[in-house]
Design a protein that fits this description.
The chain is an alpha+beta fold. It contains 39 helices and 34 strands. It starts with 11 loop residues before the first strand and ends in a 6-residue tail after the last helix.
């Protein structure tokens, strides 16, 4: 298990406020300060100057528009009443908080609004009083409630605009969209007002740290120094209030801190006021706060002094609602009292004793006090990155059209400044802006709640997304090249210097679907919150808060899915333009241009949208996205989920797809809730309650001695999700891959041939999940990787249905881990050849392996080039030697003084090769070379070397996948050579290869360039060589841990196959070697030379048994496994292929379906462990086994019996005299590959991949272990799992020290049951062996018992089958069962009895199971016409289903009886 700490709910608790070192914020940038009003507007009025009305005292009249045009509300009327609007500022009454325009007779009066129907001089205030036919128009206003706080929001400014004059709504102003001039003449006039927080007598300072817990920084996450300024973004203030002013409610705010690595930390804070002592103020500060008179410096009475503080929690999880409740409880606790427990106890209790919710306990109910509790739910499981975004808040504050406009702004990397008077809304909207562009990531500055002290970032020359309090505009002049987004007025302000692209530049159909979805969601939101926000929220809370929360979560998911669909349509097809890194990448391999075909992608889009795509491709967003797709990163699961979304969407549609892209996974559905009690109150000495002695005048300074450590360590461990153990490099499937695999399994479960291949694909997925453990334990890493590559090729060649890309991905990651980039390139080529487009995760591992691994030298070294030059010179000299010799002979034979007669042309002779042997010599018998060796067969003279018989080339490897192609070499210095041949330039090989070559083993080698060219060219691979290496795995009947003893090849060819029809025409005649054929296993259904997956790695039955067979020592431990299970309903035996056919696509269902009664039951793996513990023989027999002799025929029973008596110790090919010292039988559930893969992934995730190599696996997880052993042995895949059995409790410890390779574990897979049922009828194949005196494994049955199956009956059945009269054999069987005294029902079906009898009597090589299946099915259909299928099914005559037959063909009938 990993020692990583589980997730922690809260990292830090922080107290921020005014410190002694805080510096003032307003004095630094006085030049940017605007003239701001100090008092809010408390009254408005309308005056009619044509009637002689003047501006009332204290009021200000609006006579011009924002651009200086004169404003007269009735300028177009004939009588021109000259009406104007006036306003008044002050603090004597609550301020106005909203203005409006009311059309009498058309609008209903709004609750809380007052209609201004008269002027101060008691005349009608109708703004459109031109005549009786005009619309009566009045101003309306709403005032703040009594009593109001000092910092209450209010209207601070009013203006009028005329759109016909080119005027627009000023920044931060709200516009009333009702024309004040409703007459037919005159320009349209609109009223605008601004809401702000008008403060007076306030000093602003930079916030500092007042307290924190814990005091020591965490190693993984130290407390950032800027946290206090984020807790108080507008600074720590000192404010002078009137004495009767009430405290305002605390303000909740959230913020996000982004680390250098891109990880986010979420903060939740509340701001509140508390008293500040006057003694700490200087005279200058008192003057600015209005506490001293300006003239005589006397104290001003009736004023109170307040300061602003903040408490905050930092966490890596956006549980904003939970943190708000906790902080409000702590704040109320500090202003109430007295209390028995200190405030520090509740803080430490929440941080230490509240666990993080886990899948096992998704709900945590925390009781903080008798009246305060909070519910903590596990985050929604989503493939998208964790975020504090609220798309509904975005829609509520901006609307669908503005949301799409902001989407364009973010995709083109504009400067966005979001501002609002509500700090808690800024973070939700900012997070939504960066989340709506998934899978792209915002790479520029991102501060959703920017403190005033960091406002200089607005002048940065780079794109940014910054959120700020709207009070910033009352203090500073905003930048000109920024796009302003006002969340309070639902407006977007664009400057002339920076204009946004129009939403029309987006792809039309996806944009249309997005807008339609957002409008629909906005309408649903309006229905949920039809009334004012406070009243609606209270009503929902009182009626059904849980249903409202669930409805809001569903709408949130739909909004996010709408943006996700749009991005999937925009980036559709991008994977086809990714460029894999070429071999031996250049230093600029990470450049976006080299990783992605930018121009090709742009040309694939419609020309009308090239402007948008051109800007998108130039952004840092897209560049980082291409790098994330090209290299392995922590975002791989998210990108893989996006790829599945791209495959689902159809961009040409104008409506969303029926299948949702995202589904709501509500963690609150779990019923298990953990209850966390409040901190225990201490008791007095006599058990009485202690007095309440903790009372606070303000938020106290945290006292370390009162911050308690966790009182119960077990409580902190509750609900903790088990952290992932380091299982690298075996990446488990993502959730999307699991869902896709589940859908594929459901689709193929009804298709017989595809269901078998689907199961087979999951079996290979199990082996590749185990592959990292196997490679880690392998002595030759490259050879093990090459073996896995060959397995991939076999899977591709036989169209195995792979549910995912995990097999390729694991091998690519292993290539990167062990530095084999060439093999990684070959794996990618195999993927493309198989038609599989690698997803983001696989593609990232490939590029990582290619980029980070060391490539073989592409240029040949100087020593190699000199060796080539030397060989060329020597070769030229060799060709010149015959010419010189002929010239010498001609000169010697010429008569002196005369002309020499023409010499006869000598016979052409081949010259000696560089290896020193003439090509005319008879080549020696070729020998097998080691599969991992890079050398070629040696060229020697005669029987040179060691002598002795050589292995023929026809020898087969016992395991086909274990014979990989020659491996890519490693260059090393050439050894010295005396003859100067090409063998001077060689590749590194094992020392065993050099020993096998002998003295005359000088072998020509291929160059490095040719070898690399061969590896990189898929069509020029070397042929698959048979091998007899001792390091190759054994077949399914032999454990991979058993060492070879000598050579196992045969000199002679296998006997020719004889047709069963030929031998069965004469019933009394038996085929060759009955005893030997019946004693070996049933063998494979397909020949070993056939490269089918079912027979890959499986020795044929006609081959002699491997180690432990006749004449050899038995293994130390022998394990017999059988998957034959008995149905609990009808008692019938269900065999392996029928069990497979009965499994379902559900990866949590252990049941299979009985083919006879249709009931579900759990199949079992029966295991018999025989512990021999014999010491290994010191001398190994290196001689070859004798060739197979011609055995007696079936009619010569005496010779058969004589042969059996001559070798009485053989029983199914194994010594009968070897009695195990200890035998044990166990049974475990037989799992479907789908179920087993899910369990294995969970085991690797929790325990780590290293656990698969430990003996504890056998005892702690026996179901997983034995199922893995069964499947790996069934497919002939190498593993070290059998060796783990030696360290388990099933095997007695070895009494003496053994060499590490000596203990041998043999695995035998059986088709039939391990032990007979009591009082059951013996099967025919056992009776046949008993009548033939062939020893059998099942010794409890006798040939002459209480059953009607005689030898004549069995020979008659074989005779009918041999004559192709299978229906007669079935009829004979039914008649025999109908006789008196016969059993009513057989455990085995009639099909199974006849098939096993044929295999026992004829042997596997003389039985065509596929032909028998066709004839049996034909006979069954013929009988069904007369007896009926139900009757035949009741009497168990039915043949296996097509799904079962396909399962047997895919996995291979490699089991023994």
């Amino acid at each position: 298990m990993s020692d990583e700490k589980p997730p922690q709910l809260v990292d830090y608790f922080v107290v921020a406020g005014l410190t002694d070192t805080s510096r003032p914020l307003e004095e630094e940038n006085q030049q940017h300060r605007l003239a701001r009003p100090s008092e809010p507007i408390t009254d408005v009025a309308v005056i009619i100057r044509s009637q002689g009305e003047e501006v009332p005292h204290g009021f200000t009249c609006i006579e011009t528009t924002t651009s200086g045009h004169p404003v007269d509300l009735n300028a177009g009327l004939l009588n021109n009443p000259q009406m104007f609007i006036c306003y008044k500022r002050g603090r004597d009454k609550p301020p106005l908080i909203e203005l409006g325009v009311h059309y009498e007779g058309k609008d209903r009066p709004k609750p809380g609004y007052k209609i201004l129907d008269t002027t101060p001089y008691s005349r009608s205030a109708n703004l459109n009083s031109g005549g009786p036919g005009h619309q009566r128009t009045f101003l309306t206003y709403r005032r703040a409630a009594e009593p109001h706080g000092h910092n209450t929001l209010g209207v601070t400014d009013i203006c009028l605009v005329m759109p016909s004059k080119g005027e627009s709504t000023p920044h931060t102003f709200c516009r009333v969209d009702k024309n004040l001039n409703t007459s037919m003449w005159g320009p349209a006039v609109f009223l605008c007002y601004k809401i702000a927080m008008a403060k007076a007598n306030t000093l602003v300072y930079e916030a500092g740290l007042l307290g924190r817990y814990p005091e020591q920084d965490s190693e993984s996450f130290p407390l950032p120094e800027s946290v206090p300024v984020f807790c108080l973004p507008m600074g720590a203030t000192i404010e002078s209030w009137p004495a009767d002013t009430k405290y305002p409610l605390p303000v909740f705010s959230t913020f996000v801190l982004t680390g250098a690595s891109g990880d986010k930390v979420y903060g939740a804070a509340i701001q509140f006021h508390e008293a500040f002592p006057r003694e700490r103020l200087s005279e200058k500060q008192s003057l600015r706060l209005g506490l001293l008179s300006v003239v005589d410096r006397r104290p001003v009475a009736g004023r109170s002094l307040q300061t602003r503080k903040s408490i905050c929690v930092l966490s890596h999880w956006p549980f904003f609602d939970v943190f708000r409740k906790f902080l409000m409880f702590i704040y109320r606790y500090s202003i109430s009292g007295p209390h028995v427990l200190p405030l520090e106890t509740h803080i430490s209790h929440f941080m230490h004793n509240v666990p993080f919710p886990s899948p096992q306990r998704p709900r945590i109910l925390v009781q903080m006090s008798p009246y305060d509790n909070l519910l903590l739910c596990r985050p929604v499981s989503s493939p998208l990155p964790l975020s504090g975004a609220s798309f509904l808040t975005l829609l509520q504050n901006l609307g669908p059209d503005n949301a799409v406009a902001l989407l364009v702004a973010v995709l083109t990397e504009q400067k966005l400044l979001i501002h609002s008077l509500r700090p808690d809304v800024l973070t939700s909207v900012g997070e939504a802006l960066v989340a709506m562009i998934f899978p792209l990531r915002w790479q520029c500055p991102y501060i959703p709640l920017c403190p005033l002290a960091l406002a200089d970032v607005l002048c940065a020359p780079v794109p940014f997304i910054v959120g700020i309090h709207s009070s910033y505009f009352d203090l500073y002049e905003p930048p000109r090249d920024v796009i302003f987004v006002d969340l309070d007025t639902n407006t977007i302000f664009q400057s002339e210097e920076r204009k946004l692209l129009s939403p029309r530049s987006l792809p039309r159909r996806p944009c249309k679907v997005l807008l339609a979805s957002l409008h629909n969601l906005s309408q649903q939101l309006d229905e949920m919150y039809s009334g004012p926000g406070e009243e609606a929220s209270l009503e929902l809370l009182l009626s059904d808060a849980e249903a409202a929360r669930g409805r809001r979560a569903q709408l949130e998911l739909e909004a996010r899915a709408a943006f996700l669909r749009f991005m999937a349509c925009v980036l559709r097809g991008y994977r086809s333009f990714l460029r894999p890194i070429a071999p031996a990448p250049a230093p600029a391999g990470r450049d976006a241009g080299s990783l992605f075909a930018l121009q090709g992608f742009l040309k694939s889009r419609e020309r009308a949208y090239h402007r948008f795509y051109g800007q998108l491709l130039r952004t840092q967003l897209f560049t980082q996205f291409i790098e994330d797709c090209s290299f392995a990163s922590d975002r791989d699961p998210c990108l893989e989920f996006f790829d599945t979304c791209v495959d689902k969407v159809q961009a040409e549609l104008e409506k969303p797809e029926d299948a949702p892209l995202m589904e709501l996974d509500d963690p609150r559905g779990g019923e298990h809730t953990v209850f966390i009690t409040p901190p225990e109150q201490p008791a007095g000495p006599d058990g009485a309650e202690l007095p309440a002695r903790y009372r606070y005048d303000g938020f106290p300074t945290l006292r370390p001695e009162l911050l308690e450590p966790p009182r119960d360590p077990l409580v902190a461990q509750l609900c903790q999700a088990r952290s992932s153990a380091p299982s690298s490099p075996a990446p488990r499937r993502t959730k999307q891959e699991m869902k896709v695999a589940q859908r594929v399994a459901q689709k193929y479960s009804s298709v017989p041939d595809m269901w078998a291949k689907c199961l087979l694909g999951h079996c290979y997925g199990l082996w590749f999940l185990y592959l990292p453990t196997h490679v880690r334990a392998a002595p030759a890493k490259l050879r093990a990787l090459q073996l896995a590559y060959e397995v991939l090729r076999k899977m591709e060649a036989h169209k195995v249905v792979l549910p995912d890309e995990v097999c390729y991905r694991i091998l690519m990651q292993l290539c990167g881990q062990y530095g084999e980039p060439v093999l990684s390139v070959r794996v990618l080529l195999e993927m493309k050849r198989a038609g599989i487009v690698p997803n983001t995760i696989t593609y990232g591992y490939y590029n990582k392996a290619v980029l980070e691994s060391k490539w073989p030298a592409g240029t040949q070294g100087g020593r190699l080039r000199w060796a080539k030059l030397r060989n060329v010179v020597l070769g030229a000299a060799q060709f010149r030697q015959p010419l010189r010799q002929r010239e010498r002979r001609a000169a010697a034979a010429a008569p002196p003084g005369g002309r020499a007669p023409p010499a006869p042309r000598p016979s052409l002779q081949r010259q000696t090769t560089w290896a020193g042997r003439s090509l005319r010599d008879t080549p020696p018998a070729p020998r097998l070379v080691k599969s991992g060796s890079l050398s070629f067969p040696g060229s020697t003279h005669g029987e040179g070397g060691r002598g002795g018989p050589r292995e023929p080339l026809t020898t087969r490897s016992p395991a086909l996948p274990a014979a990989p192609a020659p491996l890519p070499p490693r260059l090393r210095g050439p050894p010295g050579s005396a003859d100067g041949s090409l063998s001077d330039v060689s590749f590194a090989t094992d020392e065993s290869d050099r020993a096998d070559e002998g003295p005359a083993g000088n072998t020509p080698r291929r160059g490095l360039a040719a070898k690399l060219q061969q590896l990189l060219s898929p069509g020029k691979r070397p042929p698959l060589r048979p091998a007899a290496s001792t390091e190759l795995p054994a077949g399914p009947r032999d454990a991979a841990t058993c060492p070879r003893r000598g050579s196992e090849q045969r000199d002679g060819e296998p006997p020719p196959r004889r047709s069963p029809a030929e031998t069965l025409l004469r019933p009394r005649e038996r085929p060759e070697s009955t005893a030997s054929e019946s004693s070996v296993s049933l063998g494979s259904e397909l020949d070993l030379s056939d490269t089918s997956v079912g027979s890959a790695g499986v020795p044929k039955s006609s081959e002699p048994p491997a180690d432990g067979a006749a004449g050899q020592e038995p293994p130390a431990v022998e394990v017999l496994l059988s998957s034959c299970s008995r149905c609990q309903g009808c008692g019938a035996l269900v065999y392996d292929e029928e069990v497979m056919a009965g499994w379902t696509s559900d990866d949590s269902n252990l049941n299979t379906t009985c083919p006879f009664c249709g009931r579900s039951f759990v199949p079992f793996l029966s295991i018999e462990i025989q512990d021999f513990q014999l010491p290994p023989s010191s001398a190994e027999d290196d001689s070859l086994p004798p060739p197979a002799a011609q055995g007696p025929v079936l009619s010569d029973r005496r010779r058969c019996l004589a042969l059996d008596e001559a070798e009485p110790e053989l029983c199914n090919g194994y010594p009968d005299a070897a009695v195990p010292r200890r035998s044990e039988r166990v049974a475990f559930a037989y799992l479907s590959p789908l179920v087993l893969r899910k369990e294995l992934e969970s085991l690797v995730e929790n325990e780590g991949g290293e656990f698969l190599a430990q003996p504890e696996l056998v005892d702690s997880h026996p179901i997983i272990y034995w199922n893995l052993v069964w499947y790996f042995q069934r497919l002939g895949l190498p593993s070290n799992l059998p060796r783990l059995l030696l360290g388990s409790q099933h095997v007695a410890p070895t009494p003496q020290a053994q060499p590490p390779d000596s203990p041998c574990v043999r695995i035998r897979l059986l088709w039939d049951v391990l032990a007979p049922e009591p009082d059951s009828c013996p099967p025919l194949h056992v009776l046949w062996r008993l009548h033939s005196n062939v020893p059998t494994r099942l010794r409890s049955w006798r040939p002459h018992g209480h059953h009607p199956f005689s030898l004549a009956f069995m020979e008659a059945v074989l005779n009918h089958v041999g004559l192709n009269d299978v229906h007669k054999a079935i009829t004979l069987f039914l008649e025999t069962l109908a006789a008196p005294g016969a059993p009513r029902h057989l455990q085995r079906s009639i099909y199974r009895e006849i098939l096993f009898l044929m295999l026992a009597a004829l042997g596997r090589d003389h039985t065509d199971i596929a032909a028998f299946d066709k004839k049996y099915k034909s006979a069954y259909n013929k009988l069904a016409g007369s007896l009926g299928k139900e009757e035949l099914r009741r009497r168990r005559v039915q043949p296996p289903s097509s799904k079962a037959i396909d399962c047997r063909k895919s996995f291979g009938a490699t089991l023994e009886c």
